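JOB MANIFEST
job_type = single_chain_structure
chain_count = 1
residues = 348
[input]
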Amino acid sequence: MELLSQYGLFLAKIVTVVVAIAVVATIIVNLTQRKRQRGELRVTNLSEQYQEMQEDMSVAMLDNTQQKLWHKAQKKKRKQEAKAAKAKAKQGDLKEAGKPRVWVLDFKGSMDAHEVGSLREEITAVLAVAKPQDEVVLRLESPGGVVHGYGLAASQLQRLREKAIPLTVAVDKVAASGGYMMACVANKIVAAPFSIIGSIGVVAQIPNFNRFLKNKDIDVELHTAGQYKRTLTLLGENTEEGRQKFREDLNETHHLFKSFVQRMRPELDIDNVATGEHWYGVQAQEKGLVDEVGTSDDLLLRLMDGREVISVRYLQRKRLMDRLTGSVAESADRLLLRWWQRGQKPML
């Protein structure tokens, strides 16, 4: 018995030491990351990537002898290019090439549109260097979410429009509700044939547990200053007046949504498409919701002809604790989003 007691005490000491080390390590990591809270901007030349892939495929089709000759020729070519670049640098000729650029951004939106934080940094970076002949392509995927989040995301895209930088939004999967609010800002919308487009409507739902609480003899008191500080509640008894005000607020939000889309795409028959319905890419083109049917891949390949296509991504740095809690929240968000999507569209 004494042996078991000593063994248990030994284990407790070991666990205490391990926990203490883990806590100290976490504090050190968090202190280190606080010094570099700002995110990282990643710039990738997609034109060069595509050219390398094209070359790899071409070389793979050659026999061994031809491959050796090709590699030899490429080595010689790179030496000549490096020599020429060095000579230009010595002469002080550091002017940028006159080739127009296509800046490629990506937005995969969640329900709360927290990705707008990265989008605003990416757009600011592009605006800092973009030339008049440049343009922007946004690869967008979002079924929508909270009004204020997607309203801000659309406003970020308007910054490009105000600077007269052509913006094309490419939708491969879905741009619905708040996602379409973002897409309609573009000068041109390209959608894949079976992408989901539209859903220009507003929805809100709230459960009410008042009857359940009454059955359990539980009272809920809610005190407000202002007639409509609260309209519908989770626990209190809702009134018809509150319901009516809630519907009025929804209708007002819908009106603002419609007005925004109409202002961005004045040729659109807004009353015909602002019913809350969604359509597939081909149908959306017929209704004027999109301008062209196609994938983002084909769009970028076309733009590579005579242009330099560059991807810009802003990656937020997160603390260790934020990563742990954030991953759980994002998993729950994705699960809810998946359930919502399954209820909103047919399955194949």
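[summary]
The first strand starts at residue 40 and ends at 45.
The longest helix spans residues 2-34.
exit_status = 0
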